[in-house]
Amino acid sequence: MSTPSTSPLALVTGASNGPNGFDLVATGRSAKIDEAAEQFTRDGAHVIPVRADLADTDEVETVWKAVEKTGRPLAAAVLNAGRSIGGAFLDTDLDDELSLISLNVTSVVHLAKRVARHMAANSDGKILITSSLSATLPTPYETVYGPSRAFTRMFALGLREELKEHGVTVTCLMPGATDSDFHARAGMNNTAFGTGAKKNSRKEVAHQGFVAMMEGRAEIVGGDAAPKRTAIEHRCLPETYKAARHATKAKPRPQH
To answer: Are 73 and 67 within 8 A, CB to CB?
Structure first.
């Protein structure tokens, strides 16, 4: 009979880097979640991997039921799942974009409802919601992605204020471009965000988000000094200027 774990429990969606010192309910859409779970286990965590497509409401509930099944209080939740779609809005697929909204927006609200009520009932807990530096500007050629991250940012900051009185903190993580397959999966290899672009370490960004969550901070821009400077610039620049600047980076380049 195994010894019950004394580590706190965390839920991590879009799991690639788990919170240190926590047992995990870790979710992902592909078989990579099992590989991640094996790594977390080697690092000493008890892990329950849940393969789920969070764009599907029923599968969101499957994830939450896995948390409830543990019978343990949830100490932390990292709502990290999300994706982008590159290309001109005239050319992209509507169903694909509606699926993006289901993942980036609807699933965050859905899981946050379950998590927030659970933590408020326990008068304790920490929530980290991933947004993006893209939340601070219009994002032509990722036309639906930026607004979805603007939603998660404002949702996180609004929820933070509500949950203060219940002993629960909410932190928003806004990464710049990171060294993952994010842009490749978005079909953006033929843009300035493609192969060879300077990007921040995803492990470092995840660590920054984790530290900010544990400290109960409102939000943090993930990465090195460059995205942090950009976030400050974006407070003052006109939206039309920011849109034009982003378009030069995100617009697909002609293929030869």
So the answer is: no
